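Below is how a single chain appears once it has passed through the pipeline. First comes the sequence as given, then the structure the pipeline wrote out for it. We keep one example in the README because the format questions we get most often are answered faster by looking than by reading.
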Amino acid sequence: MSSELRPRPTGWPVGSFDSYSDAQAAVDKLSDLQFPVKELTIVGVDLMEVERVSGRLTWPRVLAGGAVSGAWIGLFFGLLFTFLGQGVLAPLTLGLVMGVVFGVVSAAVPYALSAGKRDFTSRTEIVAGRYDILCDPARATEARDIIARSGLARRLPQEG
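Resulting structure:
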């Protein structure tokens, strides 16, 4: 991807934080004091991709999950068909049954084809080791001093 589409952040570091919420709190503090926050950028540093395993996949879990997700979609389409004047019970029932069948099949086929190579569920997230706030150099000293007085940052850059 071209660097023109996603330019690297620029500015002087004015504070470093252990969590994103701490960095947000510092920007909020600056905003409360009428600091021009459009001059700031929060940057996650030392990024890691973390996959949190949440459970084991089994045939009953796969089929039940497919049935539930299919049921919701089927009920949605059944509800849409009720607006066409075909009654209420028949479209909802048909939508539910078709949704469950479609959901079970669409969940079972990929699971069967995986041949047990990924028998667990997980979610992936990107986390940072720390969060730095960068500021336009013209206002960086002022922003750093405000953050220092607030006591929010884990470390502050030295004046350069």
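Residues 58-118 form one domain.

See the next section for the split statistics.
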